[in-house]
Design brief:
The protein has 283 residues and is mostly helical. The chain has helices spanning 7-20, 23-33, 42-55, 57-72, 74-94, 100-109, 120-132, 136-148, 156-165, 179-186, 189-204, 209-220, 226-235, 248-255, 261-279, and strands spanning 172-173, 237-238. It is built from 15 helices and two strands. It has a two-stranded antiparallel sheet with strand order 1-2. Helix 8 packs antiparallel against helix 9 and helix 11 (189-204) packs antiparallel against helix 12 (209-220). The longest helix is centred in the N-terminal third of the chain and has 21 residues, at 74-94. It starts with 6 loop residues before the first helix and ends with a helix.
Amino acid sequence: MSHPHSALQIYQFLYTLHQCCSEETFEAILVSLKTPRFSSIMTLMERWAPVLTTHAPQALNDFQQLITSAARNSDYDHLLMRVADHYHVIYRVSCFLENDLQFELFVRCLCLDSATPVSEEEVKQTLLQFLRELPTDSRDYVGEILSDDSHHYLTREDILQINRNDGMSSPHYNGFLDLDRVYEIVNDADMFDHLMAIIQTNTTKRVPWAQTIQEIYELVLPKGVWEQLAPLLQQVYINMDTEEYSSYEDYVQKNFLDDGGQEYLDEEIDRAQVEHMLSKLTM
């Protein structure tokens, strides 16, 4: 790719790096780019060039240009640090946006490219405007990510207020996951059990589905399967008929768990695990 100049281009380079490296290596590189730093940025070239030469040679040239530009220009270095600081929130949000235009607008709303200081309140207002333009299901996903993010631009109350102003209730999960596909993606029996435990526990506690998804994200992140799993989770996220059910949790309790469904769900989990294991056997 050409030398990254804007926040969007720097993110795209870091994303490419993310795909090339192991999760552990990428996280270490990302942390070294963030603030605060305790050594010269050129030391990052010495530290990571040998690693990239071995594990991601296709990214080495762009990485060297990135570091060299940051060393020459403090404004560019600050932009690099801002993008690195926001990488994970951009990455998480990107999984729930419908097209490149939405993604580009979101990055712009973070005001990372601004040549002058931007207050958190200004960023908040641009993000609120962005959220108002999103479909309700995407809005809840993105809003939950932003309210959970360490930058604290938005709160859950901000998201609820947008929905109230639009006369909408928050969408809820209404449908059961394709457990076979989930198990295939996760490919780890213990993690799959943990994932299902999160869903069952949160359903019992009436935790919003968007919040449950954030817990699942934290669980599967080390496996590097989030991008495969996110669309599957989103497919079953639709508006409930509020006259009949107050929430997805109410729907599950009345139509599934109260009618012996918990036993069925446990059996389905066992079946998915057994079928997955059998599929790996050869005659």
